[in-house]
Design a protein that fits this description.
Blueprint lengths: L1 H7 L10 H24 L7 H17 L23 E3 L9 E2 L6 H12 L10 E8 L2 E8 L2 E7 L5 E3 L2 H4 L16 E9 L2 H13 L8 H9 L4 H5 L4 E11 L7 H10 L8 E5 H15 L7 E8 L2 H7 L1 E2 L2 E2 L2 E5 L4 E13 L4 E13 L2 E7 L3 H7 L6 E5 L7 E5 L24 E3 L6 E3 L6 H12 L11 H9 L14 H5 L6 H14 L1 E2 L1 H7 L7 H11 L2 H5 L3 H5 L6 H12 L1 H12 L3 E2 L18 E5 L7 H10 L3 E3 L8 E4 L5 H9 L2 E3 L1 H8 L4
Parallel strand pairs: 2-13, 21-22, 23-24, 23-25, 25-26
Antiparallel strand pairs: 1-6, 3-9, 3-10, 4-5, 4-7, 7-8, 10-13, 11-12, 14-15, 14-17, 15-16, 15-20, 17-18, 19-20
Helix pairs in contact: 2-3, 4-10, 13-14, 17-18
Bound molecules: nicotinamide-adenine-dinucleotide and zinc ion (ZN).
Amino acid sequence: MNERMSQTDIFAGAELPNSQEAFKRAAELRASLNHHAHLYYVLDAPTLPDAEYDRMFRELQALEAAYPELLTPDSPTQRVLGKVLEGFTPVRHAVPMLSIRTETDTEPTGALSFDQRVRKQLELADDAPPVEYAAELKFDGLAINLRYEHGVLKQAATRGDGETGEDVTQNIKTIGQIPLRLIGVSAPVIEVRGEVYMRRDDFEALNERQRQAGEKTFVNPRNTAAGAVRQLDPSLAAQRPLSFYAYGLGEVQGWELPPTHSALLDALAKMGLPVCADRTVALGAAGLVAFHQAMGAKRDSLPFDIDGIVYKVNSLALQQRLGFVSREPRWAVAHKYPAQEMITRLNAIEIQVGRTGKLTPVAKLEPVFVGGTTVSNATLHNVFELRRKGVRVGDQVIVRRAGDVIPEVVGRVAEPRAAYVPNFRMPRECPACGSAVVRDKGSVSHSCSGGLFCPAQRKQALLHFAGRRALDIEGLGDRLVDQLVDEGLVTSLAGLYKLGVAKLSALERMADRSALNLLDSLEKSKQTTLARFLFGLGIRQVGEATAKELARHFGSLDALMDASVEQLLQVRDVGPVVAKSIHTFFAQAHNREVIEQLRAVGFKWAEGGGAAAEQGPQPLLGKTLVLTGTLPTLSRDAAKDLIEAAGGKVSGSVSKKTHYVVAGEEAGSKLDKARELGVTVLDEAGLQALLAGAA
Ligand SMILES: NC(=O)c1ccc[n+]([C@@H]2O[C@H](COP(=O)([O-])OP(=O)(O)OC[C@H]3O[C@@H](n4cnc5c(N)ncnc54)[C@H](O)[C@@H]3O)[C@@H](O)[C@H]2O)c1
Ligand SMILES: [Zn+2]
């Protein structure tokens, strides 16, 4: 009775439809659910957010609860909806692979109704002690049955319709995390069940590659993972990085079951299977609520998508007593979190100008609650991707927000438009400064060519420069930068250092004290390191790590500024794209001017790089040396260390820019080249003299 009450809650406030309407509506819902289940389970290409599908599912459940005569055994509410794809060998499951009932109340209190049902079904008295549960994450991927015979992986199968799945053994074997042999187990049969999923970073990287190649991007990690596993060509499956977590068992022969689900997971981990560490044993509803809340807070920082928590009665004996209803066990429930994909209206498309001048189309949305927060802006990445998705202003679109990844529009809901809407076009002029917009070479993105003249770039350039990992200027935040730029007080990086107390304290919300503090941190920021300074310049493609490598490698800013692309390529982790970007940056007069201005206001850092910085004289500063042959006492590495400590740079090839070639025994073609170019050749003694500052 209770159950029925709660399922008809969906009509709360509204009239329950009469039986004729209900009949019609149920037929509509069934057709629609079957259609979307086909797209989701069979084709791995849903066109509807899960939350919308779940809503229709609940509506049908509610109708069937109110009018039991509507219930047919083939209703989507009564069976698992997958199907075996043609081309795969069907696998009959020894133990059916079921679904899990969803607790629809996403508030933590949703755990209470599950606990109540369990207690009632177990006929526990009100004052009986709390039931023990195992709570774990509900991974958003697809279920796989791994059949181990005598400890060896024999077969992997999808869930299919629950009774029959697909043999995907070859594809599953490409997942390195899945052991081909279990540790310490030789039982005739152990079937392990778990979820194949794709990590968010792997998914983002995959999509970024697709984007750069101008290819279609994937909608979300779950469908990408499902598509990869159900891929007829294993070499294609191998290109999609997949992961796995075990969470249960299928058929077992000759292995004694542990008493509880949590002990079972421990045992699976011991066998070498990946088991997620974020799980707990919880007492009663209160324990479940606590875990649901704790994981809710952690959800964004997990490296993979979860759509909720699964609660399971911990004792396997009690699980058996509780048994199953149609497609679901009575001893488990999925308690969801707010959905990560929702539908909303695309109100407008605006262009955002990034710190480096990159132009990104941004969707202005009808505010929507997704992934736990209200989202009103989402990225559309680039104009090519936007076109491919066919999204236009006024459309109902699907917005995805998962973890700390920027919210994005993943597609539109296919429905006819009321009126013609033109396709979006990239403007020819930067919306922030009017400079010409250029298509980035070899890339799908566009940029403003205005540099520091562009106020959009100026603000972000200043903020980046002031950032904690760059020049670390305390007190220079968003709001202040907005004011400084908007009121024309600062038009260049160096301009920051020419502000006086008077000008600063005249600004809104700026007291004398904070003005003085800011001046103080500006002064302090001038004493910095070359790596921080480089990073602060905001050169495209130069992150913190690259800036450090550049500083270490070149030792001085002048050496870096004058480096050729070939020389830049010798820096660790610097590839052609990065090298070119750095080279282009320093080739532009206005960027060199920025640097000169900063030097003029008093920027200082120790040159010579790395550990050598504070160790006194740098006789080889700015010099490039090439080592060849075997030196009498110094190893190649030792010689290199000494040269670098003295501020010099060791290069792998001789060119006109080489200052010295140090040649030992059996020197080869480099020595010939040095002679040909007239580069000074030294022996080890000559090098030692240089290091001692004698030359
Ligand atoms: N968007 C669409 O058009 C569409 C269509 C059909 C279904 N769906 C979505 O698919 C889901 C339907 O549910 P379902 O019947 O496939 O099953 P389910 O996802 O609700 O629950 C069962 C599944 O949960 C998974 N799972 C993850 N972590 C687990 C854990 N720790 N323990 C046990 N199982 C775990 C298993 O794969 C298992 O098969 C809903 O989320 C629904 O929104 C969406
Ligand atoms: Zn601009």
